[in-house]
Amino acid sequence: MQDYLRLPTVEAYILVDAKRCKMEIYRREGRKWEYTVLGVEDELELPGIDVHFSVVDAYKKVYFDEGDSEEDE
After folding, report:
1. Residue 14 in 3-state DSSP?
2. pTM exceeds 0.90
3. b/e map of 39-73 (b: 16 or more CB within 10 Å)?
């Protein structure tokens, strides 16, 4: 992750959780990085590349183990 964050052209870095409906996003804000956690009711927006979708849509046809849930942690 640190290697990606050092690249000057990277504007956002997204971690997609494979066990629950959750995404973590780091966005470049000038010389700093803003960290945000997105869940089932959130939307991911990347205006620099004209991308916008709901987090839950990214998990369509993904089935989690019964022991895992978006409420964990």
Report:
1. strand
2. no
3. eeebebeeeeeeeeeebeeebeeeeeeeeeebeee
